Amino acid sequence: MRLVAYRSSDAPLLTGYRLPDELLGVRPADWSDAAEPHRISEPRERRDERLYVVRDIAYVRYTEIDWASGQARLEIGPRAGKGRDDPDAREHGEREGDLLGALVDAAVTHGRRVLNLRRLHGWVTPAARPPLAPLRAAGFAWEAVVPRGCWYAGAEVEREIWGLVAHG
User: How far is the C-alpha of 68 from the C-alpha of 36, rounded, in Å?
Assistant: First the structure.
């Protein structure tokens, strides 16, 4: 799986049923179809942000990049429908966990090798029940809890910060 530069034809990947700014922005288990899909903005001319895509599968965004300390916040947004019930995924023999694991690995590898980042971190909202196995397998670990960190399912819920530090 390879990350490539964002093009305007990739715009549909930027909209989906996911929480804003999530490290692994999969559709929450109890997300209502009546809810508005979240849309991230197209890339701007900002030194502290990079947007990449895995063609027709996901976007990967590095934000709040601190080039001096070599760290950034990471967001991964799989295409809506890419998962257990997606006919394309079944046809290609992909299971949701395999696909998410490959996305996280590609994002970490790109961040370390291409962007030369030592530390990646991101938001996880436990109330949305995201899959944590792909994050753990890539080396991410829980770091902190932010009480009332976001609004989800009609209430303020906590958010967690998960991160990894690359040694060597």
Answer: 37
One-letter amino acid at 92 equals H
Strands (E), the chain: 4-5, 15-16, 38-39, 50-54, 58-66, 71-78, 119-124, 141-152, 155-165
- Which tokens in the block code for residue 60? 């990967």
Q: N- to C-terminal Cα distance for the chain?
A: 23
Q: What is the pTM of this model?
A: 0.86
Is the separation of the CB atoms in 30 and 153 below 8 Å? Answer: yes
Q: What are the structure tokens assigned to 68, written together?
A: 């001096």
Give 19: exposed, middle or buried? Use CB within 10 Å, 0-12, 13-18, 19+.
Answer: buried
pLDDT tens for each residue of 82-132: 444 444 444 444 566 689 999 999 999 999 999 999 999 999 999 999 999
